[in-house]
Amino acid sequence: MSEIRFDGRVALVTGAGGGLGRSHALLFGARGAKVVVNDLGGNTDGTGSGTTMADRVVTEIKAMGGDAVANYDSVDTWEGGEKMIAAAVEAFGRLDIVVNNAGILRDKSIAKMTPEEWTRVLEVHLNGSYYVTRAALPAMRQNGYGRVIFTTSAAGLYGNFGQANYSAAKLGIVGLMNTVKLEGQKFGVLANTIAPIAKSRLMGTVMDEATMEKLKPEFVSAMVAYLCSEENTFTGGIFTAGGGHYARAAMVESPGVTLGIDAIPSVEQIAASFPKIADLTDAQEYPSAGANVPKLMAGLFGSKG
Ligand code: NAI
To answer: N or C: which end of the chain has fewer CB within 10 A?
Structure first.
């Protein structure tokens, strides 16, 4: 297979001053993309700011012979989103790729979680993904080409103790991707979501050091780069990636049952049918909400017909 490259493409990676974002940015830079390295330069809980983190990654990309500019705006405002897209267009004349990666943590059990801890995490992850993607889409539409990556987490897909805010934000991001996929498709914009696992300061020390060392961010970046390439035609996917393992996760619906078309079913009828309702054998994915409706209607008209 010929080398997958990004010559002539411009990529914005948010939160690219360290961890996964830095690794994504370096790979894009190494393969010919011009890169906007965005990072607020704060702490893992979202406090503080600075220019050093983004600047350092720009220096690394330039040292490899690549081209990059730094941007220090926060993803969590309308202006921040606008300014980082403008930075890309100003420096490099276009925008082709956006990786929504910036993130923070404010872990606490839900009973103890303050409204501020809840809101702040949603603002950065979910609102931030909206502000940046919304600002990027017109530039991509102009090119008739675009690749958008969202970053979710197993905590959002499956739940994790102490991360109600983060889980909610991360699954909200999947909902955002589902609709960006539909709205972007006719303009050549593909949207996919990555659920990574990698050694980073956010990940901290949740596993022993030897295991952490194996979870190199570069494993995740290889998948991100593929999804952002011209070679990729898949859109609307959720891909898990970490430590050399790659897979696709999906929202599916069981075949289910149709009960009580002409009369509301009793609670007991629901109870009797519950095993079948919950049985995921032959479960199916749906490409949109509209595509899901005929399944419901088929039951409805099937009985009348
Ligand atoms: P990290 O802390 O190294 O990277 C996050 C970066 O985002 C930091 O450099 C930070 O300065 C930046 N940032 C934070 N708030 C920002 C804002 N408002 N505007 C711009 N930049 C901001 O952590 P890591 O692990 O590399 O995280 C990257 C993404 O991957 C996050 O979205 C995280 O939730 C997600 N993730 C990571 C996992 C892992 O195993 N490392 C697991 C699942 C998801």
So the answer is: N
For a mutational test of ligand 1's pocket, the pick from 52, 174, 202, 238, i.e. the residue with the most ligand atoms closer than 8 A to its C-beta, is: 202
Q: Is 29 in the pocket of ligand 1 (CB under 6 A)?
A: no
**CB 192, CB 241: distance < 8 Å:** no
At residue 296, the pLDDT reads 81
Establish whether residue 105 lines the binding site of ligand 1, counting it when its CB lies within 6 angstroms of any ligand atom: no
Query: How many residues comprise the chain?
Result: 305
Q: Which helix (H) or strand (E) holds 304?
A: helix 289-304
> 44-77 pLDDT, tens per residue?
999 999 999 999 999 999 999 999 999 999 999 9
Q: Is the pTM higher than 0.90? A: yes
227 CA distance to ligand 1 middle (Å):
19
216: helix, coil or strand?
A: coil
Domain 10-249 CATH class label: alpha beta
| Strand 189-196 versus strand 238-242 pairing type | parallel
Give residue limits of the domains in the chain.
Answer: 10-249, 252-305
Distance 18 CA to ligand 1 centre (A): 8
Confidence bin at 299 (pLDDT 50/70/90): confident
